[in-house]
Amino acid sequence: MKAEKVYFPDDFLWGGAVAANQCEGAVLEDGKGYSTADALTTGVFAEPQIPPKGFYLKEEASDCYHRYKEDIAMFAEMGFKAFRMSIAWSRIFPKGDEEEPNEAGLKFYDDVFDELLKHGIQPVVTLSHYEMPLHLAVKYGGWADRRMIQFFAHYAETVYQRYKEKVKLWLMFNEINMMLHAPFNGGGINKKAEEMEPSELYQAIHYQLVASALAVKIGHEINPEFKIGCMIAGSPHYPLTCRPDDVLEAQKKDRESLFFADVHVRGEYPGYMKRLFREQGIHFEITDEDRMLLKHTVDFISISYYMSYCATADPEKNILAQGNIMSAVKNPYLEESEWGWQIDPEGLRYILNQYYDRYQLPIFIVENGLGAKDQLVEQDGTYTVEDGYRIDYLKKHLLQVSEAIADGVPVMGYTAWGCIDLIANTSAAISKRYGMIYVDRNDDGTGTMKRYKKQSFYWYRDVIASNGAALLEN
Predict the structure, then answer these.
(1) Which residues are responsible for catalysis (predicted)?
(2) 383 burial via Cβ count (<10 Å: 0-12, 13-18, 19+)
């Protein structure tokens, strides 16, 4: 059935999203130190040795560090109300365990926030988006060490104090549940998840959850008007069949992510996790102070959403579909992107309702988009990308967001992932593009860095200007 009405509220925060390590470049400029993201150069969890061997695309990335004014002007032309970005922790504390911050790094983000606010764009700021100072990973073993809690708290307090009049929406850890699947990417622990003892892995997860709650406490004390949220990688699981075993398996898989939101929202470990720890002999340190800190809960939930999965208890039917870091059972009813990611717009409506039914908190979609091998073409004397496939993807997902709002879900906003072309986090390549703005750069480093507006740029501009009504047009 074709939608006949859209339901976006007047204060809906339309915008785009990036991560510092994927767009800024300037890896060591103005006092910045190396981050764990700089050790991810091959698509695998490499030994954290810097500098990387050979050519390294992230050194310049999309060069947003030097071109942020140009880029923000283009975001403003699209009509952005919000811009989800991250602060590079190692730009503020190059090693991570210093007492005094790097003033040049603080000044850079002052300038970025000022530029955004000048254009009427609200910053939505992530404190740690798949990066932390590499020194903390090498010296302390990342989030396997309890001392990380205080290092993160010191960093959070520093930036909260500095930007308390400029930034009101904060997120702590990007896709915090991915620590369960990618310990180096999510926590600076130089092991794969399957190489870690469960007690060791959950101890690190616990430290990060405590640090997150402490950051909420500090933020609310510095400015009670702050709205501070958690950020979860959202991928709902459908039972592959209506067999009860498959339904229970889907519930079990969903809880792997919901657990992180449960702690952030409810301030304690849920009963199903206590049972898991008990039955699997998982033991880790939780102090009374930890329990008190966990009571400092978030104001809203933010999610990324790219795809849904299926779940089955039948090992013969475990045909995996590739996703963002983790994989799961394929849904036979869905199409796939050229990277094998299954496309399920209705899944976004489903998960928005699932999270609101469970938590009764506002929800912010801070990542959603389609990666593709875009081709720059000449058109009417200029260059563009004819990315109707991206427009189709975004349109179908946004219509489902509208349906969720009609269902009664208070959706705060939508920031499309990679609104300007970015360098991939793990593979350090740019050939998989998400943006509405094309960056003339190639995987081998060639290109002018010039920006070009894709067809989706103009389409998204019209959607925002009409507060979603343009989604109803053919």
Answers:
(1) 367
(2) middle
Residue with tokens 């998400």: 434
Which residue blocks in 283-410 are alpha helix, DSSP H?
288-293, 345-359, 388-406
Return the higher-pLDDT residue of 40 and 129: 129
Q: How confident is the model at residue 43 (pLDDT cuts 50, 70, 90)?
A: very low
B/e letters for 151-177, b = 16+ CB within 10 Å, e = fewer, are: bbbbbbbbbbebbeebbbbbbbbbbbb
- Looking at the DSSP bridge assignments, the partners of residue 439 are 451
Integer angstrom CA distances of residue 313 from 276, 450, 456: 18, 50, 41
pLDDT mean over 24-45:
81
Could you list the active site residues?
367
In sequence order, which residues have a C-beta less than 8 Å from that of residue 44 and are 6 or more positions away? Answer: 426
Element (H, E) at 473: none
pLDDT of residue 322: 53
Q: Which fold has domain 13-468?
A: TIM Barrel (3.20.20)
Strands 237-239 and 309-311, bridge-based pairing: parallel
Q: 147-163 and 198-222 are packed helices; what angle lies between their axes, rounded to 10 degrees?
A: 30
Global pTM reads 0.96
User: Do residues 369 and 416 lie in contact, with contact meaning Cβ atoms separated by under 8 Å?
Assistant: yes
Q: What digits encode the pLDDT tens for the residues 383-398?
A: 999 999 999 999 999 9
* 93 CB burial (10 A radius; 0-12, 13-18, 19+): buried
CA atoms of 37 and 403, how far apart (whole Å)? 37
Which phi and psi (to 5°) does residue 152 adopt? Answer: -70, -40
Query: Domain map of the chain by residue range?
Result: 13-468
Cα gap 81→14, rounded to integer Å: 5
Return phi, psi of residue 88, to 5°.
Answer: -80, 110
pLDDT above 70 for 91: yes
Q: Are strands 13-17 and 376-379 parallel, antiparallel or unpaired?
A: unpaired
Grouping H, G, I as helix, E, B as strand and the rest as coil, residue 353 is helix
Q: Is 114 helix (H, G, I), strand (E, B) or coil?
A: helix
Strand 411-417 relative to strand 13-17, pairing: parallel
Q: Beta strands of 200-261 (E only): which ranges?
A: 227-234, 237-239
Q: What is the SS3 assignment for 315?
A: helix
